[in-house]
Amino acid sequence: MSQSTVHAMAPALPASLDQTRPRKRRRLNAARIGVYAFLFGAALFFLLPLYVMITTSFKTMDEIRMGSVLALPVQLTLDPWRSAWGQVGAGFWNSVAITLPSTVLPILLGAVNGYALSFWRPRFAKLLFGVLMAGAFIPVQVMIYPLVWMMAKAGLFGSLPAIVLVHCIFGMPVMTLLFRNYYASVPHELFQAARIDGGGFWRIFAQVMLPMSLPIIVVAAIMQVTGVWNDYILGLVFAGRDNLPMTVQLNNVINTTTGTRLYNVNMAATILTAALPLAIYFISGRWFVRGIAAGAVKG
């Protein structure tokens, strides 16, 4: 069959499909202008303090005293950053040592709890889930004294395992809630098919559920890292002098009562303290939105 015959036999396409439709231009009305104005104002409200912090951290103290807060640095200097790292660098690594196990362990335990409550449904599952949820709403300050007493009796008070264990305890209810609601949105037929194929509790969890859980794991990791990294009261009480997190050391740097207040060093130390949570948000932002949309907060 010749090529001309093929073209002759081919059905003619409608004219509307042959031509690309021009996009309609959105007109600016009062509502849209109001939305843009609100977004611009909100962005300015949150970005202006960050701008002041960054510019101040690169200025000398003489320039800070003489110049405007919003002015760009005339002469860039990295001395405030070196001084800030020298004062909070140890706290940075202490926070890393606290945050890693305090994030991994609650996520693993919360994933197992949510998986068991969603699919296996053991006896008294609803009661256990209710107890976990009740624990999520108890203020941290109420539990400090009993936990201090228990840690002291166990010989763990003022150590790295103590602060990790405390963060695991307070992170468990929220992690369980996230994973339970996420797994509740997974089709139950998938679990039944895995059971028919001979999968047990741990095999289904490791080979079926965990590979599907990346979005909610990112959501849980962002929430737990942010909470543990920014924590002050628990780190001050339970970590001990050798494991003080970065937030406690930052407070000691900024609230010093002797000598001259070095605002450039304070700003640099504050940025260093917030750098890790900000980096995690920027890197995994799309996974966070996907995890929320996939059922992270659905009941």
What would you say this structure looks like, in words?
- The protein is mainly alpha-helical and 299 residues long.
- The chain folds into two domains: 28-77, no CATH class; 84-296, MetI-like (MetI-like fold).
- It has helices at residues 3-9, 15-18, 30-57, 61-66, 79-120, 125-136, 140-154, 160-184, 188-196, 201-209, 214-229, 233-238, 246-254, 263-283, 285-296.
- The longest helix is centred in the N-terminal third of the chain and has 42 residues, at 79-120.
- It is flat and about 75 Å long.
Strand and helix layout:
Blueprint: H1 3-9, H2 15-18, H3 30-57, H4 61-66, H5 79-120, H6 125-136, H7 140-154, H8 160-184, H9 188-196, H10 201-209, H11 214-229, H12 233-238, H13 246-254, H14 263-283, H15 285-296
Quick gist of this model?
The chain has 299 residues and is mostly helical.
* Low-confidence regions: 1-18, 295-299
Radius of gyration: 27 Å
Coarse shape: flat
Determine the mean pLDDT: 83
Helix/strand-derived category reads mainly alpha
In total, the number of strands is 0
CATH topology group of the largest domain: MetI-like fold
| Architecture (CATH level 2) name of the largest domain | Orthogonal Bundle
Helix content: over 70%
**Residue fraction in strands:** under 5%
Taking the sheet with the most strands, its summary is: none
The helix/strand series, from N terminus to C terminus, equals HHHHHHHHHHHHHHH
Tell me the name of the CATH class of the largest domain. Answer: Mainly Alpha
